């Protein structure tokens, strides 16, 4: 009898999961998406801390945080004032401050602006 109850509970769980309306997004669904706003960069204290994707943050890599783009998405970030661009890979969530659209690794930020400025105006475009 105990096995029958467990079996029925498992069957109900599988049925609920199978009927779930959770959408798995493909990176190609985002290709061409653009957004403009402010970019910031990670402080040194975050070096080697775990990101939302499970990777360890490394300020030498060209990575970034975005609130909703899928992990692994490649994004071209353009500094509006000087036209410089950098390609980054999304591996974290954030920024969670109004007006900011992306948090860049220190090396990515340095490629298109001066860290002493703290923030830069950017346009982001999903390329892959």
Strand content: 25-35%
The CATH homologous superfamily is termed: RlpA-like domain
Radius of gyration: 20 Å
The helix-and-strand class reads alpha/beta
CATH 2nd-level architecture: Beta Barrel
CATH fold title: Barwin-like endoglucanases
Distinct helical segment count: 2
What's the CATH C level?
A: Mainly Beta
Organism: Marinobacterium aestuariivivens
Keywords: Cell membrane, Cell wall biogenesis/degradation, Lipoprotein, Lyase, Membrane, Palmitate
Main location: membrane
Function: Lytic transglycosylase with a strong preference for naked glycan strands that lack stem peptides.
How does this structure look, described?
The protein is of the alpha/beta class. The chain has one domain (30-126): RlpA-like domain (Barwin-like endoglucanases, Beta Barrel), CATH 2.40.40.10. Helix content is 19%, strand content 29%. It has two helices and six strands; from the N terminus they run αβββββαβ. The chain has helices at 2-18, 106-112; strands spanning 34-41, 63-65, 74-79, 85-92, 100-104, 120-126. A hairpin with a 5-residue loop joins strand 3 and strand 4.
